[in-house]
Amino acid sequence: MKTFTNIFLGLFIFEAILAAPTIHTLTYDSETYDVALEDLDNLYDYDENIHVDHAENDSSLRQFSGSLEYLTSAPSMSTKQKEAEEEASTPKLIDGSSPHEPGVLGPQTHDGLPTCLLCTCLGTTVYCDDHELDAVPPLPKETTHFYSRYNRIKKINKNDFANQNDLKRIDLTSNFISEIDEDAFRQLPQLQELVLRDNKIRQLPELPPTLTFIDVSNNRLGRKGIKEEAFKDMVDLHHLYITDNNLDHIPLPLPESLQALHLQNNNIQQMHEDTFCKMKDVSYARRSLEDIRLDGNPINLSKTPSAYMCLPRLPIGSLI
């Protein structure tokens, strides 16, 4: 430190010397000694300016020396203080997220990354498609649409969608889901669309009555995968797709709001006359249900013609 101070002081003095004006000596004629009066005045004034400049330089040197004495006598900064200052001056991505408190980029996943850094968040929609996820990541509270297709999720836990009061659509197409907790979707007050196609689901959990669109095609529901009257209270359900599930029956009762029912490629062998219509009410008309797909099932639709009298269109399927 002292060596650096001495070098810096020497440079400062050297520059001060270079900056000082030089004195030009007047040349007198030895024969005439002619010296103009204004030249003498200029000489006097010049010497006065030199005196002033030297005084100012002396004052600057005294101030600089005082500063150097303070620097050399000040205590050296501790290593911890230096590290703290360097850390404070280093730019960082300020997120503030934690497993319990969401930050700017959403809550942290199990891998320690914020959800909106691992996935893509656009407004209130979260896209996590094709990220090799093995679990549902924690979502920002304001999420309304969640897509996590083509991943490796095997189970939907009870708390995966906890406190997601604004969530309207869940799409988990093409995962490895084989188990869903009974309360996984029940506490979602705004859920309207649920897509679980192309998984390994054997049992549907209890679903919220707010659903308008359900697609659980290409799973393993079989005979007992859908509970009795599972869709009864869904007064706004418009589309129900349960293709390729090895079902042996049509899940009844179906809400009056239903517009499309896709049950192709199952194992349905028979249909009752009151599956869609009311046997005791010949005037009953079910005008909303226009799209029924039963093709790919071992059922002969021609055996129960009265089952379709209330519908605007006949079901698609075998009539032989």
UniProtKB/TrEMBL annotation:
From the UniProt annotation, give the residues forming the signal peptide.
1-19
Keyword Nucleotide-binding attached: no
What Pfam families would the database entry show? LRR_8
Would you tell me the Gene Ontology cellular component terms?
extracellular matrix; extracellular space
Give the SMART domains listed for this entry.
LRR_TYP, LRRNT
Q: Does the keyword Iron apply?
A: no
Q: What is its main location?
A: secreted
Q: Where is the LRRNT domain?
A: 115-145
Membrane-crossing residue ranges in chain numbering: none
Keywords in alphabetical order, please.
Disulfide bond, Extracellular matrix, Glycoprotein, Leucine-rich repeat, Repeat, Secreted, Signal
From the Swiss-Prot or TrEMBL record, state where the protein is found: Secreted, Extracellular space, Extracellular matrix
- Residues covered by region (Disordered): 74-102
Q: Which GO terms describe its biological process?
A: articular cartilage development; bone development; sensory perception of sound
Superkingdom of this protein's organism: Eukaryota
Q: Which InterPro entries does the protein's record reference? A: Leu-rich_rpt, Leu-rich_rpt_typical-subtyp, LRR_dom_sf, LRRNT, Mimecan/Epiphycan/Opticin
Q: Which family does it belong to?
A: Belongs to the small leucine-rich proteoglycan (SLRP) family. SLRP class III subfamily.
> What protein does this entry describe?
Epiphycan
| Species of provenance | Pelodiscus sinensis
